[in-house]
Amino acid sequence: MDIWTLIGGIAAIFFAYRLYTVLGRREGHMEAPTPGNKPAVSTDPDKTPHLRPAFVGPAAAGLEAIAGADNRFDPDTFLTGARSAYEMIVHAFAAGDRKALEPLLAPNVLDRYTAAIDQRADRGETVRTEIDRIKTAEITEASHTDSTARIKVRFVAEIATETRDSDDVVIAGDLGRLTPVTEDWVFERRTDTGNPNWVLTRVAAV
Length: 206
Fold this sequence. Notes:
alpha+beta, Nuclear Transport Factor 2, Chain: A, 5 strands, disordered N terminus
């Protein structure tokens, strides 16, 4: 074997190793798909398959677990829905709209909200609530246990509320004054059913 053949062989081994280090590693969420965790594949034959990147942040591990059980799950889409649910629940509770609350609340939460609405009605009180804006909505915790996905969202909002008695006299609050509100809302859904809807299971002031 001459010196040039030897050098060529060494070079081939070197480039083969470099190719493996670049293409052979699993980056982000590029693990082999399983029945419950498939990478999204474009239906356009001219486009290469799209692989979802790994989640980041304090709830990353829990979000990965949820995505493993439901490959359609997307945190950004979830947060958009959570913000809408926040506004709908706050307004429906103030208006005493039980039917609007039913599909959005877990049974235990619905019972508490309904009891509060009934007590308010017995006193002849009415409530108006206006959300000026939701400043932030951030996923702070996530988990998937026993086929139940659970996500905690911290909402920071500016809200004005006012309560009037049966004589239409203001007895609490002021619609002209915004109050900063920070709350943790916990949403849950079953991942072993075809129902994609999340329900509110707990609210805690921060």
